[in-house]
User: Fold this.
Amino acid sequence: MKQMTPAPPATPRERPADSGAVQVPDAPRRRRRRPIRRPNLLAGAGVFLWLLVVGIPVYALIIATFQRSSDYRAEGPLTPTGDPTLQNYVAAFENGLLGFVLNTLVVTAAVVALVVFFATTIGYAVIRSRTRWTSGIFRVFLFGLAIPAQAVVIPVYLIIRELGLYDSLTAIVLPTAAFALPVCVLILTGSMRDISEELYEAMALDGAGPVRTFLQLVVPLSRSGISTVGVYAALQAWNGFIFPFILTQSHDNRLITLGLFEFQGQYRVDIPGLLTAVLLSAIPIFIVYLVARRSLVNGLMGVGGK
Amino acid sequence: MSTTALSRVRSGAAPRTGRPGAVWALPGLLFFGIFAVLPMGLVAYLSLTSWGGLGAPRFIGMENWSRLAGDTVMHKAIVLSLVLTVANWAVQTPISLLLGVWAAGPQRNRAVLSAVFFTPLLLSSAAIAIIWKSLLDPNFGPLAQVGPWLGYPGADVLGDSTGAFAAIVFVSAWQFIPLHMLLYQGGARQIPESLYRAAEIDGAGRLRSFWHITLPQLRHTITTSSVLMVVGSLTYFETVLILTDGGPGTDTSIVPYLMYQVGFESWKTGYASAIAFTLVVVATAVSLIMVRLTGFGAMRSTKEGM
Assistant:
């Protein structure tokens, strides 16, 4: 073990060329072990196979959006067209895709606002409140983690109808936010727990009440947790299907996922047109991926990432 | 650790300024109660009623349940859901585990390829189902071109009951493997490097290191990932709706799809609630087991013990 310590931090799976060459004293021994350290061909082959599985559909998706419907039918999705066109993109906007996107943006913003507000206040109470209620409250959300949205959509439909909200964007916002809440409460209590006791004491010595402590200490120090929660909630809203599907009806209240579903029913033959809408629907998430990769990845994993 | 323990003792005696009351959690709790917990109870009640989606539910006792017990379509749906769950697990776990461990390596090419592998995460389930439906189209998809070549002219995968079921398993693997790969990548990066060094000194090869170090060290990740897969498979809905519409016939009508069809196409909402409640009980039980196994209930900080 002693001899090994000066070695650069490399995994044992690494190829000898990467680390062995620098290690003069170890070199002969490393050479003897060479059979173990050969490049992992099996893994390479498997990864290449998976690259095809992921890559071919993505490739087909992208090139199809530049194809004319007639070319697509004649040549199929795997041959890039010799005559690319932007007609599909124009058509997607003409078919009202922008309206769907705007609706989805409104719903997403509302869901994120509700979830961040509720999850931070609940998290703060759970972490700092001295009453015996708090562990019970936490337990409610732990239990809530287990409620599958798909399975309770019927009573949600009943509640929304009784509230007179059926077929409105609010109808989508409320249950979507509620079902995102348990994961978000768990993430936030986790990150709030890392705020040290001394900081709270300093705030208390300053004479800060709960509201000031919350705004000046808890919120700023749980920024990364809040952004994870925000991204998680936004993904739920942006990609959600079952609530918009069951709780809205009219064209004016279509969200993007449902718009795609509707397109799919209408334009059976115009596959490039449909796939263009699919590609456009992913662009906002792609932008989030580019600017906030860490939060997106954490948000995607939800509690699984903890 | 000891200083925080000390300060905790001290703050117990200090004036409690700055601590929030349980009231802070009240708005969130109320919101969550109405849109998530209440539906949970309501679905049980609705399963005892006759209700057509409009008007008021009428109490009819156990009628729905005795009918459900003898419903052959439901029996088939349960079997299909169970087979789907097992198939999804058996396909996704080994692939995502191997890919995740591979992606955890520090090599540059692995990071680049992993980024490619994550692309399905940017797409919603609806988008993914539409892409695959287009690619599996018997007339215009690549299969129509490759099919005759392989000796299957006019291969209609989705028109065949085994093919349609396999397509659902495949599409769900395509959609979810990246997510589970992320979980395993995170898990594998937590494994202390020294374990591999020690194994190397003992002369263990790549396979033995994987078997005796990587796998046992990943057991918590395997639990989390498996339960997410199981609950996800039990509540899988929109992919089935878009890809196969439960068909051919009822050959891919899994429980959530059947619930939707009975509830919102035949408008036997009371009866659909009985199906939904079955689903709630099973999925909740599985999730609660997950909470137990992964120890979220312990309310522990991620930094505790450091």
